[in-house]
Amino acid sequence: MPFFRDPAKPQPVEFHAEILLGAPPRGSRLGVSLQRRHTMKEAKDMKNRLGIFRRRNESPGGHPPSKLDKVPKSLKPTLEEALKWGESLEKLLQHKYGLAAFRAFLRTEFSEENLEFWLACEDYKKIKSQSKMASKAKKIFAEYIAIQSCKEVNLDSYTRDHTKENMQNITRSCFDLAQRRIYGLMEKDSYPRFLRSELYLDLINQKKPSPVL
Description:
One of its GO terms (cellular component) is nucleus. InterPro entries: RGS, RGS_RGS3, RGS_sf, RGS_subdom1/3, RGS_subdomain_2. The structure is a single chain. This protein has about 210 residues and is mainly alpha-helical. It has ten helices and no strands. The chain has helices at about 10-20, 30-60, 80-85, 90-95, 95-110, 110-125, 130-145, 155-165, 175-195, 200-205. The longest helix is centred in the first third of the chain and has 30 residues, at about 30-60.
């Protein structure tokens, strides 16, 4: 009767080799137990790494969520001013305290880069020197437009490619399309949620000062 080798079972030579190397035989109770411990240890290490990653992302840049940047109390809006913010995103961004409040809100949604890009474009259009404009344009593109950039904003492929082409002939308007897209995204998406946020509601629910008799 011919001898057939069962690959599922450890052969004598392999069995002894595993013992000599200090490893338990495959399929043995000890081997299964150690393998289970190793798997559990890997899972625990992965969980710890994910925990660290999650904690880092809960406070991006070290900023506590829902906290405004240091803005002088003198800039705190009156009730009338805060109510005007509800008329348009433009009026919100025109007010220094409103801008800081909106930035703080976007930080809690991990989309602060949209506002930063929009502000960078506003500053860019004020540059008069052509050499400084070229340098600033490359920096903005590398930071916000390029694929997998550190603060990449959410743009459609057409707008991204159009902006990339503009880098070949840098002008004051080379980011206009991308800026409009991001402004529209904030206006349609983040701005309505800001108006429903606790941060904004606290401002418009402040009591009016009693009139002096």
